[in-house]
Specification:
By secondary structure, this protein is mainly alpha-helical. The chain has a domain at 69-103. The chain is 35% helix and 0% strand. The radius of gyration is 28 Å and the shape is extended.
Length: 103
């Protein structure tokens, strides 16, 4: 048997005998059953589900904790994490020492 890829046949999927089939549409993203639609105002926002709020109450919080770190400091810490700075033995020892003081 010889295959010639330059010739078009009715079953080849190209040429005049081709039948276009509808493509599958992109599925809608899944949503949590208790998700709430919030109109977009151009600003970033976070909406907690009822399940998340119930978990917060279960652990004794009314709202998620807010970090005291500025965005710049947070970026600095994340960069150090990604660079492996906190994996060094001397840094681990210092972190343990400071945690020990707080306990």
């Amino acid at each position: 048997m010889t295959v010639d890829p330059t010739k078009s046949t009715p079953n080849s999927g190209i040429g005049p005998g081709r039948v276009d089939r509808p493509t599958r549409s992109t599925p809608e993203p899944r949503r949590a059953p208790d998700a709430v639609d919030v109109p977009s105002s151009g600003a970033d926002a976070v909406e907690l589900s009822e399940a998340a709020r119930a978990l917060l109450k279960q652990i004794g919080l009314d709202a998620p904790p807010i970090s005291d770190l500025s965005p710049e400091r947070m970026r600095e810490v994340l960069d150090r994490l990604n660079a492996g700075h906190y994996d060094k033995p001397e840094v681990i020892a210092e972190v343990v020492r400071r945690l020990k003081q707080d306990l």
